[in-house]
Amino acid sequence: MSPPSTDLLQGTLDLLILKTLALAPMHGWGIAQRIQQVSHELLQVGQGSLYPALHRLEAKRWISSKWAPSENNRRARFYSLTRLGRKQLESELENWKRVAGAIALVLEEG
Amino acid sequence: MPLRIKDLWRRLCTTLFGASGEEVDEELSYHIARETELHIAAGMTKEEARRQAMIAFGGIEKTREQCHEQRTAASLKTVLRDVRYAFRGLRRAPAFAITAVLTFAVGIGATTAVFTVVDRILFRSLPYRDASRLVSVGIVAPIEPQEFMLGYTYYEWQDHQTPFETLMSWTGSNNCDLTEQSALRLTCASVEANFLPALGVGPLLGRNFTAEEDRPNAPKVALISYQLWRSRYGRDPSVVGKTVSLDGTPVRIIGVLNKDFELPTLDSADVLVPEAIDPASQRGANPGRVRWAFARLKPGITIEQAEAAMQPLFQQMLTTVPPQFRKEVHLRVRSLRDRQVHDAKLAAWILLGAVVLVLMIACANVGSLLLARSSIRQREFAIRRALGASKARLVRQITTESLVLALIGGIAGCLLAAVLLRIFQATAPLGVPYLEKAHLDLRVIAFAVIVSLLCGILFGLVPVLPKPDAETIVGRTAIGAPHGRIRQLLVMGQIAVSLVLLAGASLLLRSLWNLQNQPLGMSTKGLVTTTLSLGGLHYSKPEQQMAFFQLLEERLRKLPGADAVAISDSLPPGGWHHDHIYAALRIEGKPLPAEGTGGTVAWRWVTPEYFRALTIPILQGRGFTEADRASSNHFMIISHSLARYTFQNEDPIGRHVQPGLEGPWYTIVGVAADVKNGGLMGTDEPEYYRLRRNSPEDWSRDASLTVATSIAPAAVERWIHTEVAALDPTVPVVTETMTQRVSKLADRPRFEAALLALFAMIGVLLATMGVYGVIAFLVAQRTSEIGVRMAMGATRLDILRLMGMQGLRMVAAGTLAGLFIAAIGSHALGSLLFGVQPNDALSFLSVCLLLAIVGALATLVPASHAAKVEPSQALRHE
User: Fold this and answer.
1) Are B624 and B635 in contact (CB under 8 A)?
2) Which pLDDT belongs to residue A53?
3) CATH 3.40.630.30, domain A12-109, yes or no
4) Is B506 found in the same domain as B375?
5) How far B71 CA sits from the closest chain A CA (Å)?
6) Yes or no, beta carbons of B70 and A84 under 8 Å apart
7) Interface of A with B in 55-94 (CB under 8 A)
8) Global pTM?
9) What ipTM is given for this predicted complex?
10) pLDDT in tens, A93-106
């Protein structure tokens, strides 16, 4: 019934959240929806891990949260990227590209 | 606005403790609601949509828990890691850690100990209900420094006063004997029946006096103190209702007082008895019984309002006062605490101020140490920043380290405070209010811990303020240049503050020296004194009193080594003696002064040998003789100042005087030299001596015996005990030498001076450490520069001068600033000083000199190290 989901690599969820929030502040449900849409329904974020991850990132001061009215006029908790988070995103992106590139190299060799 | 505060508050809570459970719930329920909407839009029924949303979400409870864990675990982990890191860092720098902890401990220990003592005097609540509404009420006259009241006006005031809920009084305490088997000398205080209820205290057992029991000729009843109940009756509750014998009269015990009960004047009392005074008889009498009055203010009435409200009654009373008194009598209403601490208040504030200064020096020292340490670690910090540690992270870590130091120092300080407090209690004079009861409690320890934490945070943050830059990482720049300036300022401040402390201490020490070395007008060597008070049961008649003392005088005269034996009723130079206003001294052939009291005149009963025993010279006329004692005439010797005041150039010998304006006339037979009689600090009064003849009217139950001896006083003291015991073993005897008596009078100033001197010494020691530390640090920093200078031809003297000047400039600047503050601040010492001006040049000069020498040493020792540096080695120094 649900589309085939690809398990997220350890640590990639953080990267995806940061990247999503880099565009605009968003609430938890919105983040999950967006990741799902952008990945053409390939990546299904398990809600059970999304929220702990958000709280973990906030404790690390990479993102901050604020209560504000949402699209449907209910109070929702909006997360946004902090300056520290932006830096973290950059360094993780770089890291990701290097690792992905390296993996691609190995796979193509084979 | 309130919304914003609420928002801020939530933010703060979230930062500290993570999101609250409610917030997580709301967040998750929002998610499910959106999910449900999505399914409904896709065509599901409402119930089905919600079910699907829940299924998709998985375990809500589990998620909620995980959210919490993420936060608390993160913050707790960092704190623990920081603490561990701090301990590791301190272990690596043991000299730094020990110095910092010791400095903290000294500062906090001294502050806590003094705060404990001062807290009782200045701040702690009194053991009465709603004590802030209790006041002391009365009139102040030259004859008595504390406000008092007289019987005839007291009842008038009680009837007509408006500002008080209750006006109550007590009439003082006196010796009383528990005349049962194994008699016991006690102190009995007489109070009004409304006394305890007005204070808001009740007895522990039994009940308070009733109004009926407070009438004359009522059956005698008494309340006993907790201490007496414990020591005499072994806490036996059945003592209530028992009848005991007080001075031979049966008295029924109706209750036991609380353990912490104290009279509002802080006098000690073993037994409370009703005054049993008939108001009607007092109203008619003038002046009536002397008493000390207290009152409970009506709610909302201030002391000033109460004083204003009492003015009409006071003015009315003034009309009944003899005209010469009117200008010198005032109304006084003041808080009970002011009445109790009286003259201890100033000293308490001074000590508290001094100890805060010590704490400031200690904090500055620790701050200076932390700065030096952070200068060394700047490279480490810069590298860690470069590796991605946030600034906040570094601040937290440094703060943790200083907090750990402060806490260890605070704990050590509490231990030190306990020791210091013991020392205070052992060395302090009597009469420092509450000192015996002072002890470290949670409040005081909390104070110490808060103070140390504040110090830690304040100085822990200074090192992280400047921003480390890339060059610091290379380590080639002049590290610590901005810190150096802060440290120099700290050291200057320390020197200034220690100078203030030193100046205060030296002023107090000088006035102590003046106190102890002033001429007393009498000899104190080889004199043994004892004050005896005979029991009321066996010595109620003057004949019995005279017989006892004369017998004792005779026996003491026979002692080997007793050169002279005098019996008086009081002794100079301080303590109690009779006095009355000068206007109450009628002199034959002279009119009474028309206006004014003329001040007060002191007087004593003495026996002929008094002047020989105390070596008081007779300047004119003759002393009393043994033959005078048998005479039916009355004889008097006046002091030099009284003679000059009264008779100017006339000859006083042979003139007649009537003290108290009634009773017998006295013939002046001689003029004695002036003797101090107002204590060591007080002003002296003119004085006269009445001869105690062999006639019962001249005697009372109390007497002071003085034995002049050329042998060891200890032996004479023992003999006095034996002789008194041979006459009556129930009379308590306490002997002391005149030297001890006089020395006791200086106990209080000595205690104050010693404490301030101790603090000044600690302050100087810490400041010296500060100077030494800064110079030594600068020398270490500039080692390679010194090497270059020497290689270029600078002599060792040049280097010494270079490094030394820097330190001396700090010392000089600090001293000047301190001198300025001390010159302004020393006036606060005011009444604590004796025979020395607050801006005494000699004290200030010597203090500056001392500080300059110490400062120079602290500078030159590390500076000379710099001068001994080998250029070749110094150049290789990193």
Assistant:
1) yes
2) 85
3) no
4) no
5) 6
6) no
7) 55-56, 58-61, 65, 70, 72, 74-77, 84
8) 0.70
9) 0.81
10) 888 888 888 888 88
